[in-house]
Amino acid sequence: MMSVLRFLLCSQPKCSRRVQQIGGFTLIELLVAMILAALVITPLLGFMVNILDTDRKEQAKATSEQEIQTAIDYIARDLQQAVYIYDADGLTRNSNADPPGILNQIPPAQPAGNCRDTGKCKPVLVFWKRNFLRDAIQVKDSTETDDTFVYSLVAYYLIKDDQYPWSKAARIARFEISDGVQDVGGEMCGSDYPNEKYVKDKCPDKGFKRFNLTEQGSNLKEKMNKWQKALANYTQDALVLVDFIDQTTDNPPAATCPPNSTNPNIQWSKVTPGNWTSFYACVDTVNTTAEVFLRGNALARVQNNNLDYADSKKTYFPNTSVRVQGRGYLFTK
After folding, report:
1. Alpha carbon of 55 to those of 34, 58, 69: distances in Å?
2. What's the CA gap between 150 and 176, in Å, rounded?
3. How many other C-beta atoms are found inside a 10 Å radius of the C-beta of residue 29?
4. Is 251:295 a contact under the CB 8 Å cutoff?
5. What does the pLDDT read at residue 112?
6. Which of 152, 176, 134, 148 has its CA nearest to residue 83?
7. How distant, in Å, are the alpha carbons of 66, 110, 190, 191, 196 from that of 231?
């Protein structure tokens, strides 16, 4: 018995050394394994990074396409209510020019919110529309209410100023001022409207003044170009409709309108915000018609520099357009 125990005790260390020699790895083996792993993992990692970057860019493209389409659909619905659309003459001449325009009657000459700098905030699409109001007036000798409408002045601007929290590209903002709801038994609304009374809490917006079709002029355009705001300064902000609009000025596609020869009844007037062509309009005031062009900038969503348009990167600059004729009408002799 003792001989058996002695044999086991003597042979155990030898077995342990044998197992360790057979089951372990040498330093060379570990280094070779690490090199092989690096050679396999590195290209796989690069491939995954490339896939993720491509997916991020494609998502940016899709988001830009959706946003500019939503924005132009909104503008189109707005324009459908138009009764008069200002062309390039109305938006580039100030009210002291001959013939006059409305350039210094609307922001940024009259500040409104984030649209205060003439060089950074350019009007593109300005029009009057009928604004429908539900249950706005009280029926006389009744508890019932009735619908009505008021006139509103709407303006769309292209803004480029790198102001936080907006992108380094451009953006489009919308400004609107509306008339109040008149009521002979209502209340006064300040010195700008000394002979008028309005429904309580439904006064005209600050700076609003109705257009005057009795103004001297040979046509509607001349009369509307003479419009001037009320004395009070605007208090409404120009609210951003969509961001990530192309800000390129040196090499974008040219701003062009459809040739007038295709439809002799339409005479286009091109309204462009300076040397930007990412947001512009072709306007025919006689027919209350406008064709609006819009181009986004998806590159600004994925990088902080080299954001300008180039033919090699045009897939990152989705564009769209829409033609709308206003349903309203203004009669003048």
Report:
1. 31, 5, 21
2. 12
3. 10
4. no
5. 85
6. 152
7. 40, 11, 11, 9, 16
